[in-house]
Design goal:
340 residues; alpha/beta; homodimer; globular; 51% helix
Amino acid sequence: MERILIIGAGLMGSALSVHLANNGHGVNLWGTQWDREIIKEMEDRRYHPALNVDIPENINLFYDDQLEEAFKDARVIIIAVIAKGMKAICQVLKPYFKKGQIILTVSKGLDDDSLHTMSRVVEESLPQGLRGQISIVKLGGPLIAKELAKDTYSEAIFASKDIEAAQYMSILFKSPKFRTSVTEDIDGVEICAAFKNTYAITMGILEGIEGGYSNPKAALMARAVDEMGKIVAAFGGRKETAYGIAGLGDLYVTSLSGRNGRFGQLIGQGKSKDEALRLMDNATVEGLAMTLNGYSFLKALEGEGRINLKEELPLFYQTYQILHQGEGVEKAVEEIWKVD
Amino acid sequence: MERILIIGAGLMGSALSVHLANNGHGVNLWGTQWDREIIKEMEDRRYHPALNVDIPENINLFYDDQLEEAFKDARVIIIAVIAKGMKAICQVLKPYFKKGQIILTVSKGLDDDSLHTMSRVVEESLPQGLRGQISIVKLGGPLIAKELAKDTYSEAIFASKDIEAAQYMSILFKSPKFRTSVTEDIDGVEICAAFKNTYAITMGILEGIEGGYSNPKAALMARAVDEMGKIVAAFGGRKETAYGIAGLGDLYVTSLSGRNGRFGQLIGQGKSKDEALRLMDNATVEGLAMTLNGYSFLKALEGEGRINLKEELPLFYQTYQILHQGEGVEKAVEEIWKVD
C-alpha cells in the first residue's frame, strides 16, 4: 500500500483517486482553488455526483490551502490538472518536491508558451539539485474518467525514461480490470496524448459534413494514426507508440465521445468557430488550443528539417487551416482527400 | 472508360456498381441464382431499395443464366460474393477467364476447406495456361456498402503482386471523394480483411459485458491491431499493413456497426451462440465461421513455428474459446485482461 497524492480534483483526478483507493492505496486528493466546491461536496456526501460513484473512506480530501498536509507521507504525486494549468501548478508544488518522489503526469497537451510536453514542463520546474532525483512518468491511453471511476475494463501505458518508476506506477494501478504496460518512449506517449485532440476534431468535421457515416471516419482514423507516428518519429520517439494504446487506442476513445469530436461536427456542419463554441456553452475544447500549439510545435520541427508539415501531415495542416486560418471546410477536405 | 463486370449483386456488388458507374465506367452487374429478385427489381425500377439509390443507366443487369453475355467486352472482373461462395463461383467463372484480364476480389474471409485467402482461391482456379497471365488484385479498407453507394468520403487500398494492376484498379475507382492507395502486400490485406471479423466480435463482447462503455473497446482496438500485425508478419506479409487502412481502418468501421459487433454484444450479455443467432434472425455472422477457419489457419502457422497462438494472440485465442469451445465469457475476458 502506497500513499498517493493527487493534484487536481477535476473529473480525471477524482476518478484516478477512486481507482487507486479501490486498489487499496491511501489517496490524498488535493483540489485547486477551482475545486473547492467539489471537495466540499465529496467531503459532505462521500459521493461524486458527476462520476456517480461513492468516495471510498481511504481518500482524504484537501482544500487548496492544505497543500503541505496533503503532501505528508506521499511519495507518489499525480498531477491531473489541465494542460494549460500545468506550468503554474508546478510552481505551486515546487517547494514540496523531494528526492525519491515519483511524479506522474496525466494532462494531455503542450504548454502554451514553451510548447514543451507536460513531462518536460514538470522536469523544468524541478529545482536544480533535484533533477535526476525525481522520476517523471507519463500516463497514456484511452481513459474516460467516468468509466474509470466505475471500474470498467481499461488499459493504460506508463512511460518514463526511468523504466523502474514506470513499472512501479504500473503495479500501483493494475487490477484484474485495469491492464497496464510500460515503455521508455515518454516523448512518443506525450505527442500522442496531445495530438489526438486535433485528430478527434478532424474526424468530427467529417462526421459533421456527412452526418453519421462511418467510412469517412474510418479512413481518417488510419491516416491520423499514421500522422501521429510521423510526428513522434520526427520528435525522436518511436513511431510504434502511435500504433498502440497511447496512439490509436486513445484516438479511438476520443473520436467516439467528447468535446473535440462534437466541436468538429459543428464545424463540419458549417458553423463558425465562435458559433460552435457558443452552441457548446463555451466549454473548453482542448483540441482547439492544441491545434494552435501543435502548429507552432510542428513549424519548429519543420525548421529543423525533421518534417514537412503540409506534405506529410495533411490532416493536421488542413485542420489548422480550417480552425485558425479561416479556410473553408470543403476546400480543406478536398485537399485531405486528394491522392498525393 | 472501362467495361467492368461485377460478379454478385449483393449489397457490396451493387454498391461497387453504382460507384464505378458514377465514375463514368460501363458496368455489367451479374447476379447469382440468389440475386434474381434484386436484379429484377433494379431492372424494373432502376432503383436499389436497400441501398436507397438510383441505378444509373450505364449499369447493365444480367441474370445468372446470362453469364456469357455479361462477360462480353469486360476486361476487369470484380468478384463480390461472400467468402463461403468464392471457390464455387470461381469454378463457374473459369471458362470465361482470359489472358489480360484483371480480377479484383472483395470478399473477406478464408476458404472453409483449404483455409486459403480469397486471392489464392482465385489463383488456384485459373487454368494452368493462364497463371501469371491474369492479374489478381485485392480490395481492402473500410467500405460500408450503403455509404459507398451514396458517395460518402471513403478510402480503400488495392493490393497486388502486379503493382501496375493495382494502380490501374486504383485509377478506375478513385474520385474526389474516394481516395485510393496501392500496395504489393496482398497477403497482408487478405489477412486483415479476414481476421477483423473476429476482432469485431471480441470488441462487441466487451461492449456487451459493460454496456456502452468505450474504454474497454478502445483498449481492445489497439491490441487487435497489434495481433493482426503479428498474424500478417507470421504469414509473410508486412506488419505495417495492419496499422493502415486495411487493418485498423477496416476494424474501426466494423467495430462501429455491423453484425459481428452485434453478435459479440449478445454473447457478452450472456446469450449462447444459438440464442444470439436466433435474436439476430439467423443472419450470417461472418466472424463466427472466420474464427473457426482462423483458428485452423493459425494452428497451421503455429505448427510451422511461426506464431504462438495462445501467448501472442490472446484476443483471438480467447474469442475462439468462447465461440467454439464453450468457455465462459468472464473467464476468457479475465485471461485477455491479465498482464503477461
